[in-house]
Recover the amino acids of this structure.
C-alpha cells in the first residue's frame, strides 16, 4: 500500500538542528515530488518546500531559505528535512506529503501524507 | 506570496445540512486549487484536486467549483464523519499556500 512513514518525535535545544525522515513505500519513489509542510498547534498548514527525488532538485519557501535542507536517499526510498538554528516557534508538527507525478502531473496536490513528526524546541 | 482567505473560520451545522465554504485567492490562480479535510491529531486528507476533481474514494456529497480568485467547497448532506477542519491550498505558484482553515462543528 502506498504510504509515507516519518521518524519519531524530537526534542531539541534552541540553536540546534533537527533532521526528520520520511520513508516511502508502495510506489516509485523517484516518480513523485515530495513536499514538507508544517503546522503549529491550532494553526493552518505552512508549506516549507519540495524535493524532486529523481534529480534531487529542491525548491524552498523563502522564509526557510538558509535554514532548511531537503535531501533524499533513493537507495532506501527516503526523504529528509533538516531544519537548523531552531527557535521556540519551530515547535510544531512536520509532515511530508507526496505531490504530483513529476512527468505528467497537473495540480501537485498532496495525495499521500506522512503521519507527522512533533518537534519540540526547549531549553 | 499568494494569500488564501477562507470563510467562515468556523461553522456550526447539523447532520443532513448543506454547507458551503469559500476560499479567495489574493490573485488569480486559474484552477490550481485543492481542498483538504483534517481531523484532530491526524494528517490532512485530500478531498478535491485541481481542477475541481473529486479524489478517488471521497464521497460524492463533496464537490467544488471556482476559478480565478473565488472558490467554493460544498458538502451536500453532512454526515457525522464530516465534522472536521477544511483547508484550501493553491498550487498555482510557489510558495504553495493554504487557507487558515474552516472548522466545521456539530450544532
Amino acid at each position: 500500500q502506498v504510504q509515507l512513514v516519518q521518524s519519531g518525535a524530537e526534542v531539541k535545544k534552541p540553536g540546534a538542528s533537527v533532521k526528520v525522515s520520511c520513508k516511502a513505500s508502495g510506489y516509485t519513489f523517484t516518480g513523485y515530488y515530495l513536499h514538507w509542510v508544517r503546522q503549529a498547534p491550532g494553526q493552518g498548514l505552512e508549506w516549507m518546500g519540495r524535493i524532486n527525488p529523481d534529480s534531487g532538485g529542491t525548491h524552498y519557501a523563502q522564509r526557510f531559505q538558509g535554514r532548511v535542507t531537503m535531501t533524499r536517499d533513493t537507495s532506501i526510498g527516503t526523504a529528509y528535512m533538516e531544519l537548523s538554528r531552531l527557535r521556540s516557534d519551530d515547535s510544531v508538527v512536520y509532515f511530508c506529503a507526496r505531490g504530483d507525478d513529476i512527468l505528467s502531473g497537473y495540480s501537485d496536490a498532496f495525495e499521500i501524507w506522512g503521519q507527522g513528526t512533533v518537534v519540540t524546541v526547549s531549553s | 506570496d499568494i494569500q488564501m482567505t477562507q470563510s467562515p473560520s468556523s461553522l456550526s451545522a447539523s447532520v443532513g445540512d448543506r454547507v458551503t465554504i469559500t476560499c479567495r485567492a489574493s490573485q488569480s490562480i486559474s484552477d490550481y486549487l485543492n481542498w483538504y479535510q483534517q481531523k484532530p491529531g491526524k494528517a490532512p486528507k485530500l478531498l478535491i484536486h485541481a481542477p475541481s476533481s473529486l479524489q478517488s474514494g471521497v464521497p460524492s456529497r463533496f464537490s467544488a467549483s471556482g476559478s480565478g480568485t473565488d472558490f467554493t467547497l460544498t458538502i451536500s448532506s453532512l454526515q457525522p464523519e464530516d465534522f472536521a477542519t477544511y483547508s484550501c491550498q493553491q498550487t498555482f505558484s510557489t510558495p504553495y499556500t493554504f487557507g487558515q482553515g474552516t472548522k466545521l462543528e456539530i450544532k
Observations:
- The two ends of chain B are 36 Å apart (CA to CA).
